[in-house]
Amino acid sequence: MKISLIGSGNVATHLACALYDLKHQIVQVYSPNCQNAQLLAQRVKAQPIDQLKKLQPTDLYLIAVKDSAIGEVAKQLASLNIDGLVVHTSGSTALDAIKHSSPYYGVFYPLQTFSKGKAVDFAQVPLLLEGSHAEVLQQLDILARQLSPQVYHYSTQQRRSLHLAAVIACNFSNYLYSVADGYLTGQGVEFDLLKPLILETAAKVQEHAPIEMQTGPAVRQDQGILDMHRHMLDSQPQLQQLYQLLSAGIMQLHTKP
């Protein structure tokens, strides 16, 4: 399949490289920053472009830009009379956001966190698909199953729900890691000591329901420890508030009716 990437960020980079490794032809890579387009294009032997009007006819146009830019990209594609399949890769953007870009459009959303310097095994990545027509969904399904056995056909609302849950499970967790790291740094303690605990916590939910794996003073309703921790954070009111809010949430979740 001939594929062009519209975008050169984390998602675009990982998808372009994975599809290139599967022997798909990456025709062009677009970015308004010419240098960024060139960096990715070199990796997948594509032509870098910095204007959408330079797009050549291809089978598939993958829009992998920030959510707020998808509508403008779709608008520009509409003016080019695109005949190929156009899809976006966003978890929270509606399918209809690109309905004017082409007669054939869809969603190809990889449910994973991507960083350019960290390799991703797409076989472990759920791919969420949506299509304007049954034929579009079928085409996307064939392509997706070349990357991963975990392929799902979900509506915009279902996909948005997953994206919200992903933000809570991934982005919020990583924020808490950063908070814990900052707190320990102030105490002269190494954050690395927490890494086995973090790995074990993540491993447990691979086999069990998260609610069944909850541990700590809040689920035990150990008020003595909760009060001690709260007082330890008297000099950091924002962190103290966060600790109290999350502890209250855990207790409420585990309080029997």
Automatic annotation (TrEMBL):
Pyrroline-5-carboxylate reductase catalytic N-terminal domain mapped to chain residues: 2-87
Family annotation (Pfam families): DUF2520, F420_oxidored
Molecular function GO terms recorded: oxidoreductase activity
SUPFAM superfamilies for this protein: 6-phosphogluconate dehydrogenase C-terminal domain-like, NAD(P)-binding Rossmann-fold domains
Segments forming domain DUF2520: 126-248
Keywords: Oxidoreductase
Cited InterPro entries: 6-PGluconate_DH-like_C_sf (IPR008927), DUF2520 (IPR018931), NAD(P)-bd_dom_sf (IPR036291), P5C_Rdtase_cat_N (IPR028939), TM1727-like_C_sf (IPR037108)
Domain of life: Bacteria
Signal peptide residue numbers: none
Protein name stated in the entry: DUF2520 domain-containing protein
